[in-house]
Fold this sequence. Notes:
8 helices; disordered C terminus; globular; 3 domains; Rossmann fold; alpha+beta; 5-stranded antiparallel beta sheet; D-amino Acid Aminotransferase, Chain A, domain 1; 30% strand; 18 strands
Amino acid sequence: MTVLVLTGPKDATADLVIAELNERGVPVHRLDPGDFPESLIMAARIGPQQSAWGGGLRGEHRDLDLGHVRSVYYRRPTEYRFHLDPSGQDAEWAAAEARAGLGGLLTTLECTWLNHPRRNAAAGVKPVALATAARCGLAIPETLITNDPAEAKAFLEKLPGRVAAYKALGTQAPSGIDGEPYALWTTKVHASEITDAVSLTAHQFQEWIPKAYDIRLTVVADQLFAAKIHSSSEAARIDIRTDYDSHTYEPCDVPYKVAACVRKLMGVFDLHYAARDFLVSHGGDWHLIDVNPNGQWAFVPELRTPITHALADLLEGTHDHRRTVR
Length: 326
């Protein structure tokens, strides 16, 4: 039985897990759905006497039997690629058919997923994630989503210091000059900076919480791996993604109540893996600010090995469901 890893050609994070599985002698098949149809061929059948699709995929170097997949590590596959005019309707139609055909076929695999794309999609919608987190008992910042400049200004004016964190609801901005998407960082916004541009689309504003440090909490099944993130630069104190070189990390324990609520949140979304970001106030209160069902984890050196082992255990099928808090 094979562990199927769905990711792009350059994924150092997936490489760590694949290396660990190879060390254990567990068969692994790495596949990028974006290779379809250029260098990936599929053929699968189902009929009246079958409850699952039979058949497989044929790549440049290896074949995959769909019936021999024990688990799937869904990381960051690339978009489907076609030798067609990208601005034409043919390419748009072909991509939609590829997502429905190959993408749909893969999602029918009945095995352990880290995580199933449908679960990632549900947990990745920020309004849904915040409301669900609050229902699970986690503290979240006061948050407004609006396209009304007056509402936005009124919201900020009632906050301490008349300041809020502006956070994009998606993960990426439109393509830049070079055609590549670029990230939108969290920014600090004052009430006086609100303009009519807010009316152009949905905007998310959150209460600005003075913090002692950030927490990255990585969850693998029922195991929790937490680290304090101390940032020395002003940019990183606003958004830790802007300056990783300024960080120092310190593995830490998770308060019992927070741990219980996080596990409940994982259960509601039916996730086996997730990265949670918290701000910890100077009084020691944990505030959840982000629910990322497919977030990075290897950037914390002290937790890289234990998280790699935990992911490999789950994919291999040797996870013993011990409740471990770090």
